[in-house]
Amino acid sequence: MALVEREHINEEAGRLSEATAGDFIALLKPRVMSLVVFTAFVGMVLAPASPNPFLALISILAIAVGAGASGALNMWYDADIDAVMARTATRPVPAGRVAPGEALGFGLFLSAFSVGTLGLMANWLAASLLAFTIFFYAVIYTMWLKRSTPQNIVIGGAAGALPPVVGWAAVTGSVSLESLVLFLIIFLWTPPHFWALALFKSGDYERAGVPMMPNVAGAASTRRQIFVYSVLVAISGVLPTLMGFASLPYGLAAAVLGIAFVWYSWRVLAAKGQDVKSRPEKALFGYSVLYLFAIFAALLCDGLIAHFGA
User: Fold this and answer.
1) Which of 77, 74, 68, 59 is nearest to 111 (CA)?
2) CA distances (Å), origin 46, targets 132, 165, 301
3) Domain holding 164: CATH number?
4) What predicted TM-score, i.e. pTM, was given to this entire model?
5) Are residues 180 and 270 in the same domain?
6) pLDDT tens, 268-280?
7) Helix extents (H) in 162-247
8) What is the spatial distance between Cα 104 and Cα 77, in angstroms, rounded to a whole number?
9) Residue 205 banded pLDDT, cuts 50, 70, 90
10) Same domain (yes/no): 251, 297
């Protein structure tokens, strides 16, 4: 099925679409972009330097455009499997509103523009990290890992975890242990977040031929792995305080948020075939989004207080 869809999409590649501006915005995956921008901004705020506000703004915009470029390239390549998954079938490329060639050209142009802008306005280390992030997501994850291994989201999660490191590097011109802790929080958070989604969307992934963990290892094994990762997420959340670059109030907030994460994952571990509308997996997926936002919001507040209180 996926092969047939890809052949059909390739036949349409040379045909110009009648896409609207909204369709091209959708290619950027705005919700994912907003999370990238937020975590990158937190990385910039926590960095031990005070950047020029104008250069900081341009840097964060370049990172946002780079995230959008990744989304466009992902939607270009994944149009065949998106077409057979209920939650993605209405995306611009599989729905026929944007031609595959347009999505590819759009993504490549934004990739070059974002990396070049960040290099010229901030530094080339940050630009190189942004380029690596785009490459890792579009090529390593989308073109290879996603279709070949149930560990796709574990390894591929590195791309989504890099934005705070890019933000930190844009300000300092370096990568530090502190920035890698921010990376670690998102990296460990990614598997339980996406595997919770995969548990109640396993039919979609099976139809598309994507080897997500529940479809390969089974629901029981996936639940156990979710719980292990959730414990690691809770521990990683308090590391900024333990390492001395966040305050005790932040550490207490992170501990409470982490305990709740473990509790939600415990409910998933103990689940036994409940009705889809009341599955703990859905509750964990929803809480995981809140958790990541809350953790980085707490880090942001902590960093702002430290800067203005100094």
Assistant:
1) 68
2) 22, 11, 10
3) 1.10.357.140
4) 0.91
5) yes
6) 999 865 554 458 9
7) 163-172, 177-200, 202-208, 213-217, 219-242
8) 8
9) confident
10) yes
